[in-house]
TrEMBL record:
This is Electron transfer flavoprotein alpha subunit apoprotein. Coiled coil: none annotated. One of its GO terms (biological process) is fatty acid beta-oxidation using acyl-CoA dehydrogenase. Its cofactor is FAD. Keywords: FAD, Flavoprotein. It comes from Shouchella lonarensis.
Length: 323
């Protein structure tokens, strides 16, 4: 495979580059086959933030700055990225399989007449790597390669699966600032009102403590939150817990919720319905706590504790505090 000029579309959240951007650079290195690697950050004042990409091994960095890129909107970002592509002529584009990546990548693929391979969790081989993606809610895996050597390729990668390269603080460079012409927006974001939840971002957390209907009430989540605090973990939930109004739907993990792949996943008081497994079965280590020894969650758990969560979770928290 020839060297391919590759662009990584980095993503900014709450004033920081998301980890998936660094993971995308690692994937892009494999796909570029030694071709030029360009990091792109779009936003309002993102020049200094964009410079961080050098530490992960990109050759050039472009900050696309415009007041209309302060918040993500499909139209504005699509227009901005297409203007970058027009100038840079990338052969490969890599971005995160986040809500933004899922929204913008098919639109970019149509405009570029590019192949799109989405939700990639691993790449095999250095020459023309094969991309692996889960299908049927994680029950099977598909291996894909673009059909033709020529023609552009867009790849989205699932957060927390591809390992980001080592950060090299000494690698720096000059960020090129590019202005774009954004017109005729059909929608603009006036203001983003964030819930004051704080804590760790569920979709990028290394450790998740998830509760199900077994927690029995909103108060029942308190011991799980305490365990999460000790571990620096994010709290998640099954749909059963969300439907019962024990917690907010933003915590839902599964087929119709968030897809997560932490290093460590606590499944507490949840049965392990197939729709829940679709969102978490790729977690590296799964610990299940359930009072029913026949609960299906034990079939995929690496460690299982049979017992009442209201006894076990506080004990676990105390033990971990002592470590
Ligand atoms: P339950 O199945 O009721 O399980 C509760 C568990 O808690 C039981 O195993 C019980 O033994 C245990 N328990 C009870 N008390 C205690 C205690 N004191 N100590 C320890 N254990 C205890 N679900 C999702 O999670 N995510 C999705 O994205 C999702 N999408 C769906 C999409 C569709 C189209 C459909 C049809 C369903 C979807 N569901 C989803 C719902 C899914 O089918 C299940 O209904 C749901 O996951 C069940 O939630 P649960 O495991 O919390 O509840």
């Amino acid at each position: 495979m020839s060297a391919k000029k590759t662009i990584v579309l980095a993503e900014v959240k709450n004033g920081e580059l998301r980890n998936v951007s660094f993971e995308a650079i690692a994937a892009a290195k494999q796909l570029s086959n030694g071709g030029e690697l360009v990091g792109v950050v779009a936003g309002e004042s993102v020049q200094s933030l964009a410079g961080e990409l050098f530490a992960y091994g990109v050759d050039r960095v472009i900050a696309v700055e415009d007041a209309q890129l302060k918040h993500y909107t499909t139209d504005a970002y699509k227009q901005a990225y297409l203007q970058v592509f027009d100038k840079e002529k990338p052969e490969v584009v890599v971005l995160g399989h986040t809500s933004i990546g899922k929204d913008v990548s098919p639109r970019l693929a149509v405009k570029l007449d590019a192949a799109l391979i989405s939700d990639v969790i691993a790449l095999e081989g250095d020459e023309a790597p094969i991309m692996i993606r889960p299908i049927y809610s994680g029950k099977a895996f598909e291996k894909k390669q673009p059909a033709a050597e020529d023609g552009a390729l867009i790849v989205t990668i699932r957060p927390n699966n591809i390992v980001a390269g080592e950060k090299d603080e000494s690698a720096t460079g000059e960020v090129e600032v590019m202005s774009v012409d954004i017109t005729d927006l059909r929608a603009v974001v006036k203001e983003v009102v964030q819930k004051a939840t704080g804590g760790v971002d569920l979709s990028e957390a290394n450790v998740i403590v998830a509760g199900g209907r077994g927690v029995k009430s909103a108060d029942g989540f308190k011991p799980l939150q305490e365990l999460a605090d000790v571990l620096g973990a994010a709290v998640g939930a099954s749909r059963g817990a969300c439907d019962a109004e024990y917690c907010d739907y933003s915590l839902q993990i599964g087929q119709t919720g968030k897809v997560v792949t932490p290093d460590l996943y606590f499944a507490i008081g949840l049965s392990g319905a197939i729709q829940h497994l679709a969102g978490m079965s790729n977690s590296k280590v799964i610990v299940a706590i359930n009072k029913d020894p026949e609960a299906p969650i034990f079939e995929i758990a690496d460690y299982g504790i049979v017992g009442d969560l209201f006894d076990i979770v506080p004990l676990l928290t105390e033990e971990l505090k002592a470590v």
